[in-house]
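User: I want to check something. If I give you two sequences, will you return the structure for each one separately, not as a complex?

Assistant: Yes, each is folded on its own. Here is the first sequence with its structure:
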Amino acid sequence: MRPHQQLDLWRRAIDFVVAIYRVTDRFPNEKKFGLSAQVRRASVAANIADGAARTSLKEFMLFLSHSQGSASEVDAELLIASRLGYLSEKDYHILARDVDDIGRMITRLSQSLKRRAI
């Protein structure tokens, strides 16, 4: 098993990406290459995987920071999609909760790695 596949955080992020793809499939066709593509391009899970493959804790923490930034980007884009009526209120709240949970998991892992690096 690859290092990132052992992380609960990475598995949760993959589930989140799958959920994002499912809801963005329902966006209006004219938005498929705009907002939908932006939300899908966010690299939360990919940055976690990339960081876990690095040889130093410092590099891993850097990629977790990138992942945290991507999660914040998705959070903002989901709010925009919700306000534009592309997401139901229910879907928005589920996804917003998920991205908040993932953000907290990233923070906890980063703090743990920082303590190990000291």
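And separately, the second sequence with its own structure:
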Amino acid sequence: MASQSNDNEIQRYELVERGQLHTLNYRCYFRDIKTKTIVSPFHDIPLVNEHYTPPNGNPVDTIYNMVVEVPRWTNAKMEINKQLKMNPIVQDIKSGKPRFVHNVFPYHGYLWNYGALPQTWEDPNHVDKDTKTTGDNDPLDVCEIIGVLGLIDEGETDWKLIGIDIRDKLASQINDIDDVDKQLPGLLEATRRWFKYYKVPTGKPPNKFALDGKYANREYALRVIHETRKYWEKLAVGETKVDEKVCSIANTTLNNRGTITKEDADQIVEANEKHQKEPVKLDLSVHNVSYVQDE
């Protein structure tokens, strides 16, 4: 475990909530603790964490920042919103209502802490040479960087990185994808099955996978990160043109065409409804369990 000082160094951001959780008006913004400036989890939070030093002082491999959108064992489909300025986390909408993923037996919601790598982008204009499909216009997804699973979700490439918290007690023993089955037997197969079938209860067919459904190793995963980082850089500087209504590039730290002032960012947050601490009362149906037959 990292020391308290290291934890403080890692946790450089705090949450600023607006609206009421599990309603359409809920927004979760990020604010730099030191400068008190609102930041975009898509554009401002660095991809690489250069502040972490292990307690023993020994050098470590590159450490990537991850924005957790959906905590483990929860099923509210929270995600970084690309369209809204400063990219708050909001709950996805389905049929005009906040979306909850089905609880595919034997799990409740997501099996892992699920989120995204900041400053990455799966370019919808780029056809991947391995998946033969385009990107899904989102930051790169992470399940908790030791490997990657190539999901083809409704005809789009949606890479699922497999990573581990550097402070996890198993971090020193899990360095590549083959180590996962040794230390956490069953997790990779459960992960693959979940991604294949999690939309089946909604009436959709099982998802497909690239690479014959096999997990790619750490080296391949790092290549995916490098490529999606380059796509994000082109997006941020304007080389890749997108409609601001589809993908906002507003930020407060990059000093580029999308940079806005601290005051303007504060106004964006304050324009939302005030935060209500108590989440809306949920219908019990969101906890129902779905049973799916394997193909």
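Because they were folded independently, the notes below concern the second chain alone. The chain is about 20% helix and 20% strand. The radius of gyration is 19 Å.
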